Amino acid sequence: MPAQNHMTSSTVLGQKHQRAVLQKRHLALYLPQLPLDQWRRRDDVRLSGAFGVTATVSNAERLISLNTYASQLGVKIGMSLTDATAVCPDILTEPQNVVRQRHLLSALQRWADKFSPRVGLDKDDGLALDVTGCAHLFGGEAGLAQAMLDELEDLKIKASIGIANTRSAARGLSRYGGKQLTISRAEGEALQVTRLPLEALDLSPDTLINLKRLGLKAISDLTSFKSSELARRFSVNLPLALDALRGHRPDPVIPTAAPKVFAARMNLPEPIGLIDDVKSVLERLADRVCTRLHKEAYAALGFQLTLRCVDTGDHHLSIGFASPVRDTASIMRQFQRPIGELTLTFGADWFRLVALNTAIFKPTQIVIGNEAARAEAAIEQTITTLGNRLGFDRVRRPVSTPCHIPELEHASHEVVSAKADGSFDAKHLHPRPQRAFRPERLHIIKPGRPPRDFQWRRERFNLKEAEGPERIAPVWWNSPETWLAGELRDYWRVRTTDGRQLWLMNCPQKPELGWFCAGEFI
Amino acid sequence: MAYAELDITTNFTFLKGASHPAELVAQAKVLGLTSIGIADCNTLSGVVRAYAAAREVGQDLRVGARLVLRSETTILCYPKTLSGYSSLSQLLTVGKRRAPKGECHLDLADVIEGLSECAVILIDPVFAQSDIPVLKNAFGSDCYLGLSVRYDGWDQQRFADISSLSERSSVPLVSLGGVLMHSSARRRLADILSCIRLGLKIDALGLEAQLNAEARLKSEHELRRVFRAYPAAIANTLRIAESCTFRLDEIQYQYPDEVLNGIDPDTRLRQLTEEGLLWRYPGGVPLKARALVEKELALVKRLSYAPYFLTVQDIVGYARGQGILCQGRGSAANSVVCFALGITEASPDTINMVFERFISDVRNEPPDIDVDFEHERREEVIQYIFKKYGRDRAAICSTVIHFRTRSAIRETAKAMGLSEDNINALTSQVWGWRDGNVSGERAAGVGLDPTARRVALTLQIAKELTGFPRHLSQHTGGFVITNQRLDALVPIENAAMDDRTIIEWDKNDIDVMGMMKIDVLALGMLTCVRKSFDMLRNWKGVDVTMANCPQDDTATYDMICVADTLGVFQIESRAQMQFLPRMRPREFYDLIIEVAIIRPGPIQGDMVHPYLKRRRGEEPVIYPSDDLKPALEKTLGIPLFQEQAMEIASIAAGFTPSEADHLRRSLASSSGPGRIQIHRERFIQGCLDNGYEQTFAENVFRQLEGFSGYGFPQSHAASFALIVYVSCWLKCHHPEVFGCALLNSQPMGFYAPAQIVQDMERHDVKVLPICIEHSFWDCSLEPDGAGNLAVRLGFRQIKGFAEEEARWITGARGNGYRSIDAVWRRAGLKQRSLSLLAHADAFHIYGLNRREALWQVKALPRSGALPLFADIGEGLPEISSLLPELTDAQQVYEDYVSTRLTLREHPIKLLSGELGQRALADEQRDYTDGHSITVCGLVVTRQRPGTASGVIFLTLEDDTGVSNVIIWGSLFPKYRAEVMAGRLLRVRGKFQRQGIVTNVIAQQIEDLSYLLDTLGDGEVPIYPGYDNADHVRSPVQSSTSIARNQSSSHVPKPDLKTDRSKDKKTVTAYYANGGGRHPRSQASKLFPSSDFH
Q1: Partner A contacted by B877 (CB < 8 A)
Q2: Model-level pTM?
């Protein structure tokens, strides 16, 4: 049969082909306690007792990582938090911090760069390295693995390593090899790997359970079945996974791209000390960085210039922007001031400019005659300038917050971090003066409620009419920060005989405190 | 000077009002307000409580409602007359019936059309100006505009605006206080309630927080000052209060007259009774019964209760006609009339009828008959009642769901922004707290600083929140039926369940209003008995009913005496089983006593041992006095029933019938022993007056105290005893039929299917495995080939299998399938269902083990068959023989995983090699007290009752039976992990025999659960416990069940100052109560003592 022939020949070809290529070697690094390692690295005192990390798995808080102390007390991974506290009431837990964990993992990925140029992520708790031709640099595979393990131990990260011909085999060995380090023999690997449990194949939980209920537990149990039989029952993923494990199917490490860095540096043969020279260096650096930003369609919210002075070492100058920027002129304008403040005695000979907070730049259409957009741009320009002069944390705008307490009705937010939301809540109808200030005590001449004749800021007032009170009770759920915050207050809008409108206040539960003026309506 | 506050919101505006109606009424009385009006948001559910509270303190009260329309227009509405009230109630019913549960959809047009003779007050008229002329047109001079004081700085401005509006539209003003709470101290709680309602944390509450604490009930003086510019508005409060002459007590509840074909109810009751007597006594009515009938009928006639009896008779008649088994109980059921009408089966020969004590002239209260129906078919009866009387005349009464300590802490802590961990820690400490004492020590115990502001606040507020109503739910089965329209008395709303409608009032409200309630309850054992009867008729041609079941059957009593009672009604619990051989019941009355005596009350009152001694002749039967002999004769001088307590009180202390009834109510009350103390003086003095000695009086009274809270009327015991007898008779003579019916009635009772099957096998009943060719959804009977009947397990035993799928299998089976492929094609089963069948080994008949079957099932396409092969199948490749064979142990393991029972060896037996030396459960009766003992077994239940001492009860099952293990609180911390997570335990300890109960007091505990996993592949761990019976592992569950048990007085009251002897007593009582029991056990439905007063 022609089809048959074709099959045979391709198989033969495949084998030949395989023999011809270099035998690949893969290293899998498994980090079983990554969620916990974060806390271990901080030397958290709670780790001296039972400690675990929880995550919400289908609406239930479950433990995903435990320290040895907790496991010794009978807590198991996968237990719900309530069960765990029933078993071990003293257990302390932290919810999983996925973001931090991802950061840690990608930091480890960069770290692993020194062992092999091809480093990929393996789910969220492991790394896969293609170590073909790398091991001899570390004294062989065992030396490489040991070097990694030693460094990880210094980093206080628990890890286990498997090394094998294929990525999945290495992965299986690292996770289910039972030892901290398992290195397959390059030749007899097939046998060693098939002894692993089925979990090593990274199948869907459903498939795994079904296979187990059929009594199939190790990978070797599957080898005697035809691929078609398995595929029919457990989808084609199962034979594919088996092939990947045996190396019959390519299963390369896919290195994840590192985040883009936009930087430029310059080494000068002689140190320079003149501000103008520094500026021209900066301009050339900024040109290069901006060109790259343009090319990649990126823009940055900040830049940092590092100067290495021959005598005083590194100096870092930073600037920020209210909106993303990628043009040299803007950068130059904002660096004007920090550079002007520099004092260079013996000069600097090494410069580096790096763009910070980069993101894909979304250009906006310029509409001719759009005054609002122009005004906006002008405001942003101002904010940028102010921010670079005063610090961005000092350029603030008031934002209304829903609260009954007058002094808490507005909060000031950093302009750059919080976008303006000037909309007042329609229900927010408290009568408030245009000018409000810290309550100032009145000198009462003729008492009343509110006083009929009083002196304030050395002026004398007579009451004409009053509206109120607006009674504001203190917030009970926080401890008061000032004496005022803890008092029940009555506010009155008062019109005096000479036409002034004042905002008077007293504390009805403490009349001995007297009357205050808290603001003036204009 | 006078003032009426008309704008009061109570906490029956759920999650908004921050005070109980009673608190508001009491505060109004203190402030000296002339009158107050309660108006909750679209509801009248709080009015009865307010009314009762007002009656108690003598506060003038108007009831009304705050109508919040869909347009957000808000109108306070106070009925002026009874018909005005009815129109309000009907309007709310209209709004609620068209909306989903808990909501009310009304428009202004509905109000104009539906409401009459009411005074209406428009709130915030500035925002609803267009509604003013419409309302004025409809209500004329009864229409007002509300001036609400808020202290928000706009009061004067607002008053001026509304006042000018009033002048323009010539609608008068009325001043309102906008009350949400009775005292300003509740502001915090009001904020927390807002948080819960809006799902916000307190820090994010913002403007939804209370501006100040002025939404409180204020004094007249204060309001006069605020409204000094509007004296007319103040005067109008009184005008409205005076014009609304309606009082809640004007509501005339009328029971349906039950006139049929023009025959008045008394005549009809007599007719039916006579017919019934002829049927009950074919040989002629005994004189005693005849006399009782006359006495009862005369009393019924005088109190006009005949319609009530006729209604019950009709419902029971309907159920009988549909073949639904039912049985009545309750105070009024304790009568010959009910016996003649077929409502109860307890004949006057067996028990003392003290009918007039329950229905007396003095007690102007409705009679009480509860009827139990088969739990699976009760819905038919409910729908029949709805159909017969119509939705506007019959409805189920509601139950107010309250915040309990645990939920109060949880919700408050959440609102206060405590973390999930802290909330768990706090609530986990509430284990069995009864009185809501959330002390700082407890918080400190879980590592929270009780002085930390938020924690302290949480504890304080949670305490206030506890007991607040949260929403309405439906009562377990209390029906209210009226002659006139029910919605004219109280609004009717939709329940969460389809086809159910409930009224807004709960059981207590109904009592206050003097409305009659018929309890239509569900009882699992009746389902089982009916199924047994059906099978007997079909398979054996034996026609048995509850009434004609052979009486005084020796074999049955023999069986009972050896405590072979697994699965039967009531006397199946461990304590009962251990008591039976000593009690040795020989006649029906013994069963009545048996049912009544093994209960916490008699045990705590120390009545069990004296009774047993007297019964066995080891102690002379002595009576406190000769006068009391007739009352106590049947129970050998030991008072066991409520009736006896009443008789003692009236004979010895000369209580009047109403006093005796009051005493009985105190005994039955769940509120603890405190209430009975008020009778003490009266009782002792009465005894002294009658010539008894002081010591005698005190002794008798102490005995009565003993079963306070647990009192049990004889009529109940008699009704239950009958079901006990019938179920025992069935088990004795037809074990296969009974077992099969019991399996088909699950979940119910104390035992899990595994134990029921084991028990059947012990009785030489052949139990056949689930089989694709022979099984049905239910377990069924089939000839075993040797002339007997065997039980075939049904598909219902397979975990997760759907009933509908089973119907497809049986429907398409014809002459059989003969292959998995055919099942798949013809029955159209999904692969998931086929996998479940394969896991359950249902294809064994094809010569396939479960793995081979699963291998085949997995090969079937997930979607439909390919068209070409639709009729003939795809000719699957032969089974792969490469699959590993299953060992015996693995088979057992798989059996447990898929059906929670096995017909093969008990897992413990398979492991006996590894378990080493151990005491078998059935050998334990030979051990002596204090013997050292080692027991091993599967953990089937694990409980920590509400005792503060933290004792834990474990039930371990081995291949021969169960052992009871007690773990003292002091040992628990050491073995916490083992106790909490273990599935197979080895316990070393001391054997203890406490009279009727044997226990192992644990000293050393070992978790051997890993051995269980060695049986199979350990992927799916076997949890041998009963479904959800595990109280300890899920604290939330336990709190509710403990709370429920306590309210129905099952678990003895925890005593904080616990010494060992006290512990022993509670332990005994705990077991007496059935010990670890199925949470869905009928107990909580059967013995809610609060249900029979």
Answers
A1: yes
A2: 0.75
